[in-house]
Sequence to fold (174 residues):
Amino acid sequence: YASGTSMATPHVVGVAALALGAGNISDQNGDGLLWDELYERLQLTAVDTGLPGWDKVFGHGMVNAQAVLAAPMILDGSDFQAGSFAGLQVTGATPGDTVWFTYSTTGPNTFSPAGSDILMGIGWPVPMGNTTADAAGVATVTFNIPISAAGTSGRIQALETSTNTSTVIARTVQ
Fold:
C-alpha cells in the first residue's frame, strides 16, 4: 500500500487541503463551488512523469505542492519549424522576476537557476533563454530552431527564480 494510488491519494488530498486552507483558490466560473478550480490547479501544476499530458500509467503526474500554492504560470508558444524562429510566452509570472525557458526530451528533474532546486515537469532541462517578466506578469522569448532539429520531440517549461513553474507543453519540430 506504499505505492501507486494508495500513496498518491493522501498526498493529493493533503495538497488540496493546503491550497483550500491558504485561500488561493477562488470560484472563477461563479458556480459557487471550488472543486473544479482546485482540480484544474492540481492538473496544471502536476509534474508530468509519463508521456506528455495525461496517460494511463501516471495520470496527470506527480502532485507539486509548491506550484499548487503559488499562482501557476501558463506557457504557450508557436509551432516549431526547423530553420525558423519560434516564440514562447508565459502569463502569470511575478512582475520583475527572471523567467527561464527550458526544454528537454526526458522526464522530471530539478533545475537550479539561482541555487535553489526547483521541481520541474521535464528532465535535464536545457535553457533556451531568459527574460524579465513585465509589469503585467508576461514574459516572452524568441529563439532560432536549427534545421538539424527537424523531427525532434520534447517538452518545454518555464520557471522563475522565485521557484514558480509553468505548465508543460509538448512540441515536435516540423
Notes: The radius of gyration is 17 Å. Helices lie at 5-22, 35-45, 65-69. Strands lie at 74-77, 84-91, 98-104, 109-111, 118-120, 126-132, 139-145, 153-160, 169-172.
